Amino acid sequence: MRTLRNRYHLVRHGHSLANEQGLIISRLTAECIASELEAALGTAVPVQPASGLRERDFGELEGRSHEEYAAVWAGDAVSAANRAGGTGESVTNVADRAEAVILQLERDHEDRDIILVGHGDSISILSARLLGPSLEQHRRYGLANCGVLRIPPA
């Protein structure tokens, strides 16, 4: 694991309508977490969208059953070049764009607690890039809805 100047709290979004319907959908936001923090802290909490943390493009699987994830993840375990749904993003593609968010935050901040809210695959893939051992094993960092992973670990 690389040495980081900040502490990151990677949060998988809450249970969504798409989760409830068992569909692969790639769009949600972090405003509800900011609202809760503002109420608890009594101060504004800035929310800055980071396109590098958007959900993985699942290509032809978009809008289909979440049961399709198993085949994608089996392919990921073989190769980080596996393209989700045949036409979507590879694990390497997602890792590169998500890591760029971390690199920018590392340049801009020091000794901060930073909360990053994302989707399941974007969070697990970023975690594998930062913690290892390999991108093919990103599912070891799969989080349940509302799950939190701290990097570096406490």
Automatic annotation (TrEMBL):
Q: What is this protein called?
A: Histidine phosphatase family protein
| Pfam families with a match to the protein in the record | His_Phos_1 (PF00300)
Task: Show the InterPro entries listed in the entry.
Answer: His_Pase_superF_clade-1 (IPR013078), His_PPase_superfam (IPR029033)
Q: What species is given as this protein's source? A: Prototheca wickerhamii
The superkingdom listed in its UniProt entry is Eukaryota
